[in-house]
Amino acid sequence: MNPKIASFLADRIPATPCLVVDVDQVELRYCELEAALPLARIYYAVKANPALPVLQRLVALGSCFDAASWEEVSMCLEAGADSSAISFGNTIKKVSAITSAYAAGVSMFAFDCDEELDKLAIHAPGARVYCRLLVENAGADWPLSRKFGTSVEHARALMLRARDLGLDPFGLSFHVGSQQTDTASYEAAIGRAAMLFTDLAAAGLDIRMINLGGGFPTRYRDDVPEIDQFATAIGRAMTKHFGNALPETIVEPGRFIVGDAGVVSSEVVLVSRRALPGALPDDAQESVRWVYLDIGRFGGLAETEGESIKYQIRTPHDGSALGPVAIAGPTCDGADILYERSNYRLPLDLASGERVELLSTGAYVSTYCSTRFNGFAPLAEHYI
Ligand SMILES: *Cc1c(COP(=O)(O)O)cnc(C)c1O
């Protein structure tokens, strides 16, 4: 576990549940990605963790930002980002959000359909726009397909139409899915985007940007490839398709930048045994040990949906005998189960009242927290 966070927890013993984020670790990851992909400009995906200390540190490092709403645009501006460093990357935007962002100087917007293009033409005239392509999300633990992106054929027509509407259709984007563990997914997506890029350039469009999206993984329970392996695959594909005439390249990492900078400290509320469905209530062989924490699906661990993201859990008894467990949150909702089928094992000595830590919870936790479900206060956050 991160030593800075470990000593913060030991010294301060903050009330649980809480998220502790080491902002120096955020910087480390940013610099690591910058070194791995020196030709790409980093647009941090704000939604992964929009906390002011994170945004301020990234502004100081020269990062650009990918915002999904006017509120996220405002947070970036408040943190000191220049409006020219902000991309409004959500393909689904309220007119009021487009208007506010455009008035604030944001001039880079994503789209993937005619209807959104019409909104941009009216409310952000002349803006730089880029079209999101639909690509394979195989290999991603948290896929982002279906809802976003369009076909190469449709994107081609959209880009030409964007020019006719007086916009500056300057690039293409894709997202290979979050927590993507297969480097080949970037190569395939780059190939698809490059084909259209070349085609549009031949059609006379002043196209000059490729946005590779996010997806770079954080290490949770299982190993993932190193960032250098992704960089190598990306570099190889870019050179193969563009030669020396590399377009302006953008990446939009979220999880990779903040994921392993955060630790959730949680209290064990209850340890009990529950009979398997169909078993007699007092048959120990037919029961499962359940550990209930004071954080669950509604306290911020939304990505445990479908047991997709598998956080590592530290306990005061690590190293002692383990046994299988189901792990759940504290609310009165039956869906508030974190892990039942993922073969989690925790120390047999673990007891209620003890504290555990969920590692690599810096991304997609603080903002997924519900506000007052069952009366529980929102997740406390400490940035150190
Ligand atoms: C969520 C998102 C990202 C960040 O994805 P990660 O998997 O966290 O890196 C980047 N771009 C867009 C458009 C997104 O929606």
From TrEMBL:
One of its GO terms (molecular function) is ornithine decarboxylase activity. It catalyses: L-ornithine + H(+) = putrescine + CO2. One of its GO terms (biological process) is putrescine biosynthetic process from arginine, via ornithine. Its EC number is 4.1.1.17. InterPro entries: Ala_racemase/Decarboxylase_C, De-COase2_N, De-COase2_pyr-phos_BS, Orn/DAP/Arg_de-COase, Orn_de-COase, PLP-binding_barrel. Residues 24-259 form the Orn/DAP/Arg decarboxylase 2 N-terminal domain. Keywords: Lyase, Pyridoxal phosphate. This is ornithine decarboxylase. It comes from Lichenicola cladoniae.
